[in-house]
Amino acid sequence: MRAYGGGGAMGPAIALVLGLLAQAAPAGDAAPSDDELRNSPGWLATPSQDDLQAVYPETARHQKVRGEAVIDCTLDSNGRLTACRAVEETPPGYGFGAAAVRLAGKFHMTPLYPDGQSVAGGHVKIPVHFGPQHRGSS
Questions:
Q1: Residue 130: strand pairing partners
Q2: Contact residues for 1 (Cβ-Cβ < 8 A; gap 6+)
Q3: What is the Cα–Cα distance from 20 to 31, expressed in whole angstroms?
Q4: Which of 40, 45, 95, 129 gives the lowest tally of CB atoms within 10 Å of its CB?
Q5: Domain 3-130 carries which CATH code?
Q6: Residue-wise pLDDT tens for the chain (138 aa)?
Q7: Smallest Cα–Cα separation from 90: which of 60, 119, 111?
């Protein structure tokens, strides 16, 4: 079974930044090798800014609290995320973990590795970084 980690950002215009680069991660939390990165599946779809804003916890939004969560999910044969759960949440008590889990249906990974093997049964960890969106600014 292969596992994936995440890192990176979708762009400066997005107030809520997701670490979305699919990277094969060996057991433990060691950094992936160049070979593992080359052989990682990619993302076909990720949440939009509207999707991210829709799940931003209200209390955190009103208090302008930034936070982050990491979700751990299993991949199905179509590259969809299933059985997702929050494994990290900072700061606690604002609902960032639950908000990140609600985004799971918006993610879609390629169903095959570059070598043709299915991603089914693999795991992906996705860090989701939340920050208040500034309305009216570009």
A1: 67
A2: 121, 122, 123
A3: 15
A4: 45
A5: 3.30.2420.10
A6: 444 444 333 322 222 333 443 333 333 445 555 555 556 788 999 998 889 889 999 999 999 999 999 999 999 999 999 999 999 999 999 999 999 999 999 999 999 988 899 999 999 999 998 887 655 443
A7: 60
Enter the pTM of the model: 0.72
Query: Cα–Cα distance between 134 and 27 in angstroms, integer?
Result: 39
Dihedral of the CA atoms 52, 56, 61, 66 (nearest 10)? -80
Domains of the chain, residue spans: 3-130
Tokens 């609290």, residue?
65
